[in-house]
Design a protein that fits this description.
The structure holds 2 protein chains of 2 kinds.
Chain A: H1 5-23, H2 32-37, H3 44-55, H4 58-71, H5 77-92, H6 96-101, H7 107-114, H8 117-135, H9 138-150, H10 157-206, H11 208-219, H12 233-250, H13 252-260, H14 264-274, H15 277-296, H16 310-318, H17 323-355, H18 365-389, H19 396-420, H20 426-449, H21 457-486
Helix pairs in contact in A: 1-10, 1-17, 3-10, 3-13, 3-14, 3-17, 4-9, 4-15, 5-12, 5-14, 5-15, 7-8, 7-19, 8-17, 8-19, 8-20, 9-10, 9-16, 9-17, 10-15, 10-17, 10-18, 11-15, 12-19, 12-21, 13-14, 15-16, 17-18, 19-20, 19-21, 20-21
Chain B: H1 2-42
The chains are: A mainly alpha, B mainly alpha.
């Protein structure tokens, strides 16, 4: 075990501060919009801290490191694409400007005004389903990091995961978005310090030039050029481009910062200022994994080994006491900030878009907050059980991307249709929702029942975007022509 | 081409570390002010 008393003290102090800060927000949440979108009072820098902390989870660090270990620097390409997408969206205001002006609390709420109540409900279902499935592997990957890095026995993984989610759940339930924001702010600072310190330590120990040579030695030109990488290639890159734009405009946990921003200008500035953060989000954990590659070689790619464990095992072997405590505290910060935001985002959608439309009379603010708190508990319980038994098919990043595509592709088509295409209508929206989910869902099901017949993850991902767009255009035009004939 | 791409990734690593350092400092100070303002309005 690599953990000493000083490391435990650092971690303990961090968790205590976070817990108290999160709980203290309870007194500010009396109305449902304060609970779900912080009363729409979030200014630029708090928005940047919160978005950055949410986007950099321990799961992110694990899968980006895995990608770096498998693919070298080329594995960090999604970060560059997301940086460009965030910059473009921030500068142009594409989707986020009209969305913020609409004053909604969730994305599906917008669809009711543009399409119908039924579309709102179905979109809410897809968002919640895709989002919760996506979050399903967070706990296991986070626990795996802690176990391998600290050297605590593997049997403690489940206990560690459960304790983490319980602490996060309690403070998120207490203050909703306000607790998420305050803890995100603390976590952002700690996380940033940890990432900078560990990255410098890796470079200092291995040498930057040596790390580049390691990549070239094990991965050849494909390690620095995604187009030449056998795990990636042009089709995979194209899928990632589509996904980067869709994530920046429709991923609920990202968009919830826009919906909580105090105005449209603040929303756009949050995006432009946070954009370059996405490069490091992929590249720096990949750098740590390349450090592991230079020390362990490709041992973790051999049968029976898990490449996800390479980076934590490497960090566990190189960091000194005190430094290890800072690393673990910062990684716990990463995990908790992401978990809290995701829990709240999916609970918000289930309450606001699935339950609320079914009620004749809306709930009082007090009961609405209570209902959201209950949903938070239910999602956390589901995550604990799902995270324990589900085995990821292939690379973690591909799993996250494909489960995210269940809703990203269709909701992106609905969003662009609602905001920028006057002829879009309810038929197109339904068709886009169903067709967009077909690709990723069939990939997941085929992977479970007939793995040999499953399409490649990139093909399934691209198909979901193409099908959703075709559904939106085709369905809307058919509706137009039917309506024309009736007239 | 290999040399050029190697330098590209090295520059990107340097820029990322620098950006994270700057962001932690700037957001640390100004984000704290944003929190104070937000909670004042919530009161």
């Amino acid at each position: 075990m690599h953990f000493t008393m000083i490391d435990w003290v650092i971690v303990g102090v961090y968790i205590t501060i976070c817990f108290i800060a999160g709980l203290s927000m309870r007194r500010y949440t009396k109305k449902i919009d304060q609970y779900l979108v912080a009363g729409r009072e979030v200014n630029v820098y708090l928005g940047v801290a919160s978005l950055a902390a949410t986007e950099m989870g321990l799961v992110t660090i694990m899968y980006t490191a895995e990608s770096g270990y498998r693919n070298g620097f080329a594995g960090a390409l999604p970060g560059i694409l997301m940086f460009l997408a965030a910059l473009f969206v921030g500068i142009s205001g594409f989707v986020i400007s009209p969305l913020r002006k609409a004053n909604v609390m969730t994305i599906p709420e917008l669809f009711e005004t543009r399409y119908s109540k039924g579309v709102r409900w179905l979109a809410g279902l897809f968002i919640a389903l895709g989002g919760i499935l996506n979050m399903g592997i967070f706990l296991r990957l986070g626990g795996q990091f802690i176990v391998y890095c600290t050297g605590i026995p593997a049997g403690y993984l489940e206990i560690t995961m459960t304790a983490l989610i319980l602490i996060t759940l309690v403070y998120t339930m207490a203050g909703g978005m306000l607790s998420v924001l305050i803890t995100d702010y603390i976590q952002f600072i700690l996380l940033g310090l940890g990432i900078v310190a560990v990255s410098c330590a890796v470079i200092f120990r291995e040498g930057l030039g040596n790390l580049v040579q390691t990549v070239l030695h094990y991965h050849g030109a494909g390690g620095i050029n995604p187009f030449l990488n056998p795990n990636q290639g042009p089709v995979w890159v194209f899928w990632q481009v589509l996904m980067a734009i869709a994530v920046m405009t429709t991923w609920q946990t990202v968009i919830s910062r826009i919906l909580a921003a105090k105005d449209e200008g603040a929303a756009r500035r949050i995006y432009t200022r946070v954009s370059f953060y996405y490069v490091g989000r992929f590249l720096l954990p990949a750098l740590w994994a390349i450090g592991a590659l230079s020390v362990f070689g490709t041992r973790f790619l051999e049968p029976g080994m898990d490449p996800l464990n390479a980076m934590p095992a490497y960090l566990g072997s190189m960091l000194v006491p005190g430094f290890m405590g800072l690393l673990i505290a910062s990684m716990l910060a990463a995990e908790m900030s992401t978990d809290s935001s995701y829990l709240l985002a999916w609970a918000s959608v289930i309450y606001n878009d699935l339950l609320s439309p079914l009620m004749r009379k809306g709930l009082s603010d007090k009961n609405a907050i209570l209902a959201t708190r209950l949903l938070l508990v239910l999602i956390a319980v589901f995550l604990l059980f799902f995270g324990l038994w589900y085995q990821i098919p292939g690379a973690a990043w591909d799993y996250l991307a494909i489960t995210g595509s269940i809703y990203l592709s269709s909701v992106f088509a609905l969003m662009v249709g609602a905001l920028y295409w006057k002829r879009s209508n309810t038929w197109g929206a339904y068709a886009a929702l169903v067709l967009g989910a077909a690709g990723p869902l069939s990939f997941l099901v085929l992977n479970m029942v007939a793995k040999d017949h499953a399409p490649s993850v990139a093909i399934a991902g691209i198909c979901s975007y193409l099908f959703a767009a075709a559904g939106m255009i085709g369905g809307s035009l058919v509706r137009d022509s039917v309506k024309g004939r009736q007239v | 081409m290999i040399k050029l791409l190697s330098y590209f990734w090295m520059a990107l690593i340097g820029a990322s570390i620098l950006w994270y350092g700057v962001l932690v400092f700037v957001v640390g100070v100004r984000g704290g002010r944003d929190i104070k303002e937000m909670l004042k309005k919530m009161e």
